[in-house]
Amino acid sequence: xxxxxxxxxxxxxxxxxxxxxxxxxxxxxxxxxxxxxxxxxxxxxxxxxxxxxxxxxxxxxxxxxxxxxxxxxxxxxxxxxxxxxxxxxxxxxxxxxxxxxxxxxxxxxxxxxxxxxxxxxxxxxxxxxxxxxxxxxxxxxxxxxxxxxxxxxxxxxxxxxxxxxxxxxxxxxxxxxxxxxxxxxxxxxxxxxxxxxxxxxxxxxxxxxxxxxxxxxxxxxxxxxxxxxxxxxxxxxx
Amino acid sequence: xxxxxxxxxxxxxxxxxxxxxxxxxxxxxxxxxxxxxxxxxxxxxxxxxxxxxxxxxxxxxxxxxxxxxxxxxxxxxxxxxxxxxxxxxxxxxxxxxxxxxxxxxxxxxxxxxxxxxxxxxxxxxxxxxxxxxxxxxxxxxxxxxxxxxxxxxxxxxxxxxxxxxxxxxxxxxxxxxxxxxxxxxxxxxxxxxxxxxxxxxxxxxxxxxxxxxxxxxxxxxxxxxxxxxxxxxxxxxxxxxxxxxxxxxxxxxxxxxxxxxxxxxxxxxxxxxxxxxxxxxxxxxxxxxxxxxxxxxxxxxxxxxxxxxxxxxxxxxxxxxxxxxxxxxxxxxxxxxxxxxxxxxxxxxxxxxx
Amino acid sequence: xxxxxxxxxxxxxxxxxxxxxxxxxxxxxxxxxxxxxxxxxxxxxxxxxxxxxxxxxxxxxxxxxxxxxxxxxxxxxxxxxxxxxxxxxxxxxxxxxxxxxxxxxxxxxxxxxxxxxxxxxxxxxxxxxxxxxxxxxxxxxxxxxxxxxxxxxxxxxxxxxxxxxxxxxxxxxxxxxxxxxxxxxxxxxxxxxxxxxxxxxxxxxxxxxxxxxxxxxxxxxxxxxxxxxxxxxxxxxxxxxxxxxxxxxxxxxxxxxxxxxxxxxxxxxxxxxxxxxxxxxxxxxxxxxxxxxxxxxxxxxxxxxxxxxxxxxxxx
Lengths: 238, 354, 316
Prior knowledge:
Structural class of chain B: mainly alpha
CATH architecture of the largest domain in chain A: 3-Layer(aba) Sandwich
Distance between the termini of chain B: 58 Å
Order of helices and strands of chain B: HHHHHHHHHHHHHHH
Helix content of chain A: 25-40%
Largest interface: B-C, 40 and 41 residues
CATH class of the largest domain in chain A: Alpha Beta
Order of helices and strands of chain A: EEEHEEHEHHHHEHEHEEHH
Low-confidence stretches of chain B: 350-354
CATH topology of the largest domain in chain A: Rossmann fold
Mean pLDDT of chain B: 86
Low-confidence stretches of chain A: none
CATH superfamily of the largest domain in chain A: P-loop containing nucleotide triphosphate hydrolases
Number of domains of chain A: 2
Helix content of chain B: over 70%
Strand content of chain B: under 5%
Shape of chain A: globular
Strand content of chain A: 25-35%
Number of helices of chain B: 15
Number of strands of chain B: 0
Oligomer: heterotrimer
């Protein structure tokens, strides 16, 4: 087992007085896709947000490359190389695609033209729409913009919050394909997903969250094969 | 002279009481309902002008005056202000707080604009004078020669009686009247605050979506609060007109001296707390008038020291310095003591809010 | 067509309306930027404009009184701009920033207080009476008069108005370049779009806010000086008088839309002037005393009918 890039250790966290994560531990290693699945309200998105310093961690720690970054403000976390794509409102709708990507590079404003070209290569759809406003794009395309925007910095890891929520099946597959492509460029990905089946299928490992704590851990394939999980989240056994 | 101090205190109580009524009105709008009204001066002007036109003796300079009894004038002043507020409320109340602020400050300016331009009705910038003041008005011939005073004595007797009184005789009575009105409004608002209506207002202010979801007509409740607050402000405006006896659109109804001072009073005293509103009003008004004495004294001293140097301009500017200091006071309160001296106390509601 | 009707209409109503519109437009840019990026209606904006005009007057007075040469207001405005921007930044740091995470209304209240503080400070320093900004009667530009007269299209436009037109256009071009071509300008649009997303994208929001005050301050400064050039005098109430029309312009154009604010400003300025034109009969359509009311009426109608403004800005 190689050293993890990002690890969450025994986190207790929440908004204000309300604690949502009670005892959460997970880690992401280089070159892997990790999926976090679980029922609504299990704290999946909260887990990601706690990394970004968007809520208050009362116990436990978040480590990036072994360095503790618990409760670091979001802007700083991004600068450290953790890129995050929120579930909703994840693009600047009044900015063009190109401008969105440029904003993504805010913390590392050098070599932007080269990286823009890299992104257009990774997301060919965006290349032709680069001068359109992001607000004029379809949901799937917006998701692409959001991911490309997040990759404009030298991301050490990419966090995706429900990237396929509300998308058509066609776009869903496309997004999962892209996530694999991103992994192949050397950026590990942590995805929080409702579409557990598809997410686990592309993931190397997965975590099943229930009530703010991890219930099961295993490789994507193992979790997919697990009867209990299948019954709970995957819509019937197989 | 002790006697001068007594009169000074009476005047502090009178004006402080009028401001306290304004602050109570604002507390209904802001403290109870969270409506950011920065057009207080507009409602004050509506109340003052309504009262003035209805109660002054007939004049060739402006519409009327109609010479109606004073309480009637005050009642109609409240109603007029309430109607104006109702119209504004129907249009603006659903707006986000910033927009409501812009809209109310605009409406106040428009109201003043109307009073300034409709010279046929209001005598324009020259204003309306000889506005009857409660108690003092009895010493005017048109009042002592008509009922109810005429039931008790002949005009000649009354004339002689009033001439025998010292010229400040009405001051304690007027001050008491203002304070009594203030007290009555305070008691009524306290009742309203503890009643289901008041608790509902708190619920709406705290969590509007939840209040809406539980089927409350949020907009209607807000308009109610806006209208009630405005009616109280209209009444305060009528008392303001009585106190001044001469009103005109620009300087009398300076937003800085009405709207702004009232806001500082409420915030200092404690928004949401009726006692706080009154305390803040008396406190700020005392500071305001005392600072006038202090600054004038300081300038006199300076003039004595630098004999011959023209200090005249200092006098005119001293008032602005005061306003600046009050503004800074507001910033300090907002940042350091946002809950005010007497913070809001939640009415107990054992069964939750219905 | 170019009869006495057209001559009067263009020179005495349309051109002055356009001048007023330019002033409102520049002021409204600052308001719309603050509204969309810092998310509050800044009531102190008009007072800052007014302060800028007074500072410019002071620089002019020092130049002619102490140094012995007269300078054009637009030259004097340059050093004064720095002071106004500084005033904005200091105000933000000490009076608005403490409320960044708090309820919007707190900062609106603080700005309402700043309005009074700044105005009172100006009244204490410069006194409450009117000051002459530029003496004398502004004569129409002679070249333009001769040329337009020769083609039966007589235009009487004083130089001060030409300066205002050119200055406004120059400001617009600079602003457009800033917002569309520079990194900080794009970031301003991004924050205006979604502050939360800007935050998790790593954009330095504090830096963007500072830039907003600088841009808004420069525009407010220009608006204040143009206004003083136009009316040729200074009054401590001039900022407050501008406030409502500027809010109206910003709302009309759509909050967060600088071009919308400009268009809104022009519409409001023209509407105010043209409302006094004798459209029906001989008297003015609306008594000039009610000019301010026109801006307000337009704003209220807009808030009812289309709160997001002409350009589909943010509506709260």
